[in-house]
Amino acid sequence: MILSKILENLYQKLLSKKTKEKSERIILWIALASFILHLVVIELLHFNIISIDEPSNLLKNPIAAIYTPFSFILVYEVYLLIYYLPKSTSIYISKQYEIIALVIIRRLFKDLSDLSISSNWFNIKNDLQFTYDLLASVLLFYLIYLFHVQRTKVYRTIENSKTHYSSITKFINAKKWIAISLVPILLIIAIYSFVSWSTGLFQPHDADAISFKNINNIFFEQFFNILIIADVILLLFSFFHTDEFHKVIRNSGFIISTILIRLSFSVSGIINNILIVSAVLFGLSILFIHNKFEKKLAEESKDTNEIED
Fold first, then answer.
1. Among 251, 242, 244, 241, which residue's Cα sits nearest to residue 166?
2. pTM of the entire structure?
3. Residues 204, 299: Cα–Cα separation, whole Å
4. Cα 28 to Cα 10: distance, rounded to the nearest angstrom
5. How far from 26 is each of 20, 23, 188, 190, 296, CA to CA, in Å?
6. Do the Cβ atoms of 35 and 69 come closer than 8 Å?
7. What DSSP state is assigned to residue 158?
8. What are the pLDDT tens digits along the chain (309 aa)?
9. Burial letters for 291-308: b for 16+ Cβ neighbours within 10 Å, e otherwise?
10. Distance separating alpha carbons of residues 250 and 231, to the nearest angstrom
11. How far is Cα 166 from Cα 237, in angstroms, rounded to an integer?
12. Which long-range contacts (CB under 8 A, 24 or more apart) does 53-61 make?
């Protein structure tokens, strides 16, 4: 009883609708302020009012300034992912896909500042990456749309037995505990990554600055490691709720999809895009087949009830 009260109090403080709306306003103001600040720094460098040894490409072109507010918006999207975790597994997974798609869109803003418009477009690495990202973002947008269509399909009515209700309640509570635990982890990783990135941006030769293989991986590489652990814990808890084959396969498939997204941070170029698209396509395929199972079971259940009647 006491544990349940603690759970609800923490949940209301960290993941309630009111907290979500408040967080959204704060992030939007931070994003706007960061965009203006980034533009100011670029102009100060342009007019030699301030100087930085070997400034990053993000400090050379005003287009790149969009990268900074987009980064804060992405952090809010991660918060939304945690927010929806206790509510729906499929929405939680779709948020993962939306986040990785937005990461690619953010990368496009950075790529735009590095473009070399010439007849040798397909021989220039940055221009090729921009092309890959452009195609991947459109394909992901469509795949995510298809995922949303599949996740809204419901074929079976919820059982009303006390045992079923009890197992669902326990599973939801487990998801709430995991979500609550992820909130401070999100904040710690976000602050740590931002400080490390800022140090590397303004002091590129600082020995204490963290070296990232790709600037687009900052924060998300670490956070998706945590997500994989959270997904495995969710899978284990789901066995207390159901042992139906198609649901176990669906939940296991979603973990594989998350792992593929995490692996994409370890590579660059077209392989990065292929892994991301494959992750979303795999998750979509798993959900599509799962829904086929649900539809078939619903039809069998209906036939059985008709015979009994």
1. 241
2. 0.84
3. 63
4. 24
5. 10, 5, 17, 15, 46
6. yes
7. P
8. 788 888 889 999 999 999 999 999 999 999 999 899 989 988 888 887 877 666 666 777 788 788 888 888 988 999 999 999 998 888 999 999 999 999 999 888 877 776 767 666 666 777 788 889 999 999 999 999 999 999 988 776 555 555 556 678 888 888 999 999 999 998 888 888 777 766 665 565 554 444 444 566 678 888 888 989 998 988 888 887 777 888 889 999 999 999 999 899 888 889 999 999 999 999 999 999 999 998 888 888 776 655 555
9. bebbeeeeeeeeeeeeee
10. 12
11. 14
12. 53/204, 53/205, 54/204, 54/205, 56/201, 56/204, 57/110, 57/113, 57/114, 58/110, 58/113, 58/201, 58/215, 59/201, 60/113, 61/112, 61/113
What residue type is 123 in one-letter code? Answer: N
Nearest CA among 231, 110, 133 for reference residue 182: 231
Q: Which amino acid is at 48?
A: N
Can you tell me the distance from the alpha carbon of 9 to that of 3, in angstroms, rounded to the nearest whole number? 10
